[in-house]
Amino acid sequence: MQKIGVFVCWCGSNIAQTVDVQAVSDALAKEPGVVYSTNYQYMCSEAGQNLIKDAVKEYGLTGVVICSCSPRMHEATFRKAVASVGLNPYMLEVANIREQCSWIHKDKEVGTEKAIILGRAAIAKVQLNAPLQAGESPVVKRALVIGGGIAGIQTALDIAEAGFEVDIVEKNPTIGGKMTQIDKTFPTLDCAACILTPKMVDCAQNEKIHIYSYSELKEVKGFVGNFSVKINKKARYVDENKCTGCGECTTKCPMKNVPNEFNLGMDNRRAIYIPFAQAVPKVATIDPNYCNMLKNGKCGLCAKVCGAGAIDYKQQDQVIEEKYGAIVVATGYNPIKLDKFDEFGYSLSKDVITSLEFERLTNAAGPTSGTLLRPSDGKHPHTIVFVQCVGSRDTSGCGKPYCSKICCMYTAKHAMLTREKYPDTDVYVFYIDVRSPGKNYDEFYRRAVEQYGVHYIKGMVGKVAPRADGKIMVQASDLLANEQLHIEADLVVLAAAIEPDKSARPLATMLTASMDTNDFFTEAHAKLRPVESPTAGIFLSGACQGPKDIPDTVSQASAAAAKVIGLLVKDKLTTNPCVAQSNELMCNGCSSCEKVCPYGAITYIDKEFRMPDRTTRIRRVASVNPAVCQGCGACTVACPSGAMDLKGFSNSQIMAEVDAICQMK
Amino acid sequence: MQGMMLNRAKELLSDGTVNRVLGWQAGEFVYDITPAVFETEEELDAGFVYNGFCGNNLSKYLVKETLKDGKILVFLKPCDTYSFNQLLTEHRIDREKICAIGIPCDGKTSGEMLKAKGISGITGISEDADNFVVDTIYGQTTVAKADALEERCKTCKSKKHVAYDELLGEDGEILDSHRFDMVAKLEAMTPDERFAFWREQLSKCIRCNACRNVCPACTCEQCVFDNPKSGIAQKAAADSFEENMFHIIRAFHVAGRCTDCGECSRVCPQNIPLHLLNRKFIKDINELYGDYQAGAEVGTRAPLTNYTQEDVEPSIVYHREGK
Amino acid sequence: MPNEVKAFKPKIVAFCCNWCSYAGADLAGTNRLAYPADVKIIRVPCSCRVNPMFILRAFQRGADGVILCGCHPGDCHYTTGNYYARRRMTLLFSMLDFLGIEKERTRVEWVSAAEGAKFAATMNDFVATVTALGENKRLEDLRCKE
After folding, report:
1. In CATH, which superfamily holds the domain spanning A142-233+317-326+537-568?
2. Predicted confidence band at B245 (pLDDT cuts at 50, 70, 90)?
3. What terms describe the molecular function in GO for this protein (chain C) (predicted)?
4. Mean pLDDT of C14-31
5. Residue C143: pLDDT band by 50, 70, 90 thresholds?
């Protein structure tokens, strides 16, 4: 039997006005196990806390019940107080007699009666409380960033700046991501490469940063502070340490007709290639789908011309194992495929292109060396139609229900730059709404309309039909003028919706990080914890969490880095002691608990049991990792045998409360 | 069929593939069938039977048997294979230690069913497609299966084996069984009528635990009803509440895991239609969360350890029509 | 003295998840939104912590109504807990109804930390419903009545 002290707070008159605090402390004094019961004006004040501490010492209390305001208010205060005099803080329970009693009941008799019952329930619970110890788990002082786009780069640089080791895993041969393909950036019109490539070089040169390019995650185990990760480094058939990036091989390779993904297939590269001049690492990669040597053993030209002897046709995938304290997801986005949108004729004409393809057509490093030319005939287009919201804000099922956020601004940018460079071009933009919140964004859009004479038309394009003479007929409605428009265009640019990278879904499963229905990672709290996943130790950077432009991405990337640094500076993490615990003797090993655990905290081990007849038997039993368990209790109900229980909210504790409340006299 | 099974069992015993055979044997009377483990050919010859009384689902016994050394042969009727898969899904049995032989089943009867038809002095049973041919000390009697089948066999859900290493005889099909008709009939009653129905049924309960002990979904290392700390530990049924509580909790514990093998009702000495509680859950799950047959495949996620964001709200219970 | 017939006061147990509904109940208090004292709240970390056994236990011990409150679907602090709770309670309530036990004695309501008014309104409504049903006679254990 516990020795329980009961402390009834008046909260000035907040409680005392509608609850007879003396009657409550008198009634609760008669409960089994209660050895001391009192009331006081302000239990949370220093004098009140001293009253509690003194009683714990004087009466040797093993349990404490505070009848006061909500435990959400002062439970931590009181727990700290009793801990300071040597009582385990989890031997204390709070009965909420203010928010859930005195403040909502006007009749003092009613309020007093209820307060007594709430007190009894808390006493009944404390009878069954057990001292709990917050666990500790060590922190590996190294971070992993998945994805080497601008988000991943910024996060890695910030973490490295704070002095921690950080690895970037990038699935492509170079870091840089989508931003490398972009020509200029709104609203300042800086050249994307000019602001991005120095950061890429910083990454490569930073001693704290290690880049695993052309690599993917294979397996993630562990938990916050202590993840162990297997990284698959794909064979690139070139020794990274020997290759100087001179590019000789990429000019000699006879396989000239490989679609160049960097230019979105609008020109070709060789089977051995460096994605672009500023690639980091600047190392050649052999594309095994096209290389003759790898496919049928004939050629070997690149090996002959390589002065460094870096070519290695026998190279194998390599699995690297590393431990991390924190993982940052920065897997980014992709424009959606447009084949489903027949009305826009994307697959019917080469001159219907996506906005990202338009970026390449205007980029000096692009397939046309920056001159805006029609992909079909290489002629200069005189009428260009931009279509916004292609697949965005689309609830028909073809596209995405959300706003892709960046399209309004980059379309304004494209329209403006076109008009500036080619003033003889007519530019039309079809929009549903123009969304331009952001510093200097609306000014930027207005400049496109007012200074550059871009024809902004509110309305949706109904049909894009290429004609035999090379013109593209665009049929659209002008909602403001309420008329149908027919435009003969030379080039149509579609602002395709963006979606999370396809690698995100399997990654989320590996990390047990939750996603929304659109496969964007969900944050721990939409407002207050926007860069953390609900899964401890997993952080979110950039467009993997939702559509974002570059300034937002970089802000969030730095925010994620700050959170990671905040974790890595700790030597040890204290863990919530109210976690699930499995009684191995009763566990069936049926895996029900594991299936409902949102954190992957439950694993199974084969354990040897000694049987009453002195034989041993090996059974599969659940084992909860207390560092990962967050204490929701889903497993306790899924467990058919009742082997799984939750510390601090055990089955017997909750039933004791139920009994105390129901058995009112 | 019994001969084929016996021969195959002996072959597998003698060539060392298995070292035990899990099958059926008769008790004092031919219709008192119990599951049995045979270790030698002699034991098989002496005791092994398979006939119209062999209703027992043997899959549950594999939980204990596969903890032992060596491989065991088990004979599984189509409905037993669902329990078998469910036990595999829940890691309760070790597939490596089992050789499973699927055997056909055209429905089972029981001594009790036949006695109710006025047949006594039963000494043996055989069957053809439509009839049981019963040997008695008074001679041979033929009784139509339609009249003598166990309740669960009348609404058999599947003649198809969903798991086996080898098959004796022909495999059947999944049937359209109308097994939810009685549940639907109860649902159509008023709450008072339902309460009266279940009070009458459940008040017969003597808490013998036979339903739990035979249930292939009830293989817990320690049952909550036997655990003094669970708050609902074993008590004799002292009043109406006990029976309600026991059966609700039992049905809930197996909800989404119950394969509807019907063993609970078969063994109930008080003839309480316990399977209706399980079927109610199965029917609800099918209607609310999409068709789900526990044990149809290994490794599926049971409906209660699964969810969709669009799941119905519990308030649907208030809005369902008619009641 | 004539025997006074005491007005029926139901016993109501409300399980509230710590993160949303318990906070919603606190907010109802902060805003002085009254609901009957018959409601007694038990704090649980998540609606998924509530075992159907707790609900049956409450009825056994003489509760007349049991309500479970949790975060709105999609807002669970533990991301998925209330989805499991939703399935469990749907099936449990349906089973109680199948046994002829008044389904109105059980309820699930999603109440966010911001919905103090909803919490109070829900409790007022639930108490009124259960009061109208009268004493729980179909699921009680007479031995618990002493």
Report:
1. FAD/NAD(P)-binding domain (3.50.50.60)
2. confident
3. iron-sulfur cluster binding; metal ion binding; oxidoreductase activity
4. 93
5. low
Region A286-296: mean pLDDT is: 95
Chain B closest CA to C103's CA: distance in Å?
A: 7
Residue A665: its pLDDT value, please?
47
The rounded mean pLDDT for chain A is 94
Query: What is the domain range of residue C55?
Result: 12-139
pLDDT above 90 coverage of chain A, percent: 89
Q: Give pLDDT, residue B323.
A: 42
With both helix axes pointing from N to C terminus, report the angle between A108-127 and A21-29 in degrees, rounded to the nearest 10: 30
Both tokens of B91, joined, read 């890691």
Measure the CA–CA gap between B297 and B162, rounded to whole angstroms. Answer: 7
Interface of A with C (CB under 8 A): 70-72, 96, 98-101, 103-106, 110-111, 113-114, 117-118, 121, 514, 522, 534, 578, 596, 598, 630-634, 636-638, 646, 649, 651, 654-655, 657-659, 661-664
Residue with tokens 């230690």: B97
Supply the CATH number for residue C111's domain: 3.40.50
Long-range contacts of A47-55 (CB under 8 A, 24+ apart): A48/A7, A48/A9, A49/A77, A49/A78, A49/A81, A51/A7, A52/A5, A52/A7, A52/A78, A52/A81, A52/A82, A53/A81, A53/A82, A53/A84, A53/A85, A55/A5, A55/A7
* B237, pLDDT greater than 60: no
Residue C78 has pLDDT above 90, yes or no: no
Pairwise CB contact (< 8 Å): B194 & C100: yes
Angle ∠(A429,A430,A436) on CA atoms, nearest 5: 75
Q: How many other CB atoms sit within 10 Å of the CB of residue A131?
A: 11
| Among candidate residues A277, A263, A78, the one with its CA nearest the CA of residue A181 | A263
Q: Pick from B192, B281, B289: which is nearest to C100 by CB?
A: B192
Residue of C nearest to B317 (CA): C94
Cβ distance C33 to A104 less than 8 Å, yes or no, reads yes
Q: What is the ipTM of this complex?
A: 0.95
Instruction: Give the pLDDT band of residue A592 (cuts 50, 70, 90).
Output: very high
Neighbours of chain C (3+ CB pairs under 8 A): A, B
| Chain B residues within an 8 Å CB radius of A608 | none
Closest chain B residue by Cα to residue A597: B305
What pTM did the predictor assign? 0.74
Residue to test with chain C: of A512, A661, A664, most C Cβ within 10 A: A661
Label residue A140 exposed, middle or buried (CB < 10 Å: 0-12, 13-18, 19+).
middle
Task: Output the pLDDT for position B236.
Answer: 58
Beta carbons within 10 angstroms of residue C73's beta carbon: 17
Residue boundaries of the structural domains of chain A: 4-132, 142-233+317-326+537-568, 248-305, 334-499, 580-647
C-alpha span between B246 and A130 (Å, rounded): 29
Cβ atoms within 10 Å of A468's Cβ, excluding its own: 5
* Domain A334-499, CATH homologous superfamily name and number: FAD/NAD(P)-binding domain (3.50.50.60)
Q: Is B67 on the interface with A (CB under 8 A)?
A: yes
- Interface mutation target, options C9, C21, C32, C43, chain A, most CBs of A under 10 Å: C43
Matching CATH number, A580-647, of 1.10.1670.10, 3.40.50.620, 3.30.70.3270, 1.10.530.10: 3.30.70.3270
Q: Answer whether residue C1 shows pLDDT above 50.
A: no
Chain A contact present for C37, CB below 8 A: yes
Overall average pLDDT of the A401-426 stretch: 96
- Between chain A and chain B, how many beta carbons pairs sit less than 8 Å apart? 58
Q: Any idea which residue has 């979105």 for tokens?
A: A264
Q: How many domains does chain C have?
A: 1
Q: What pLDDT score does C144 carry?
A: 61
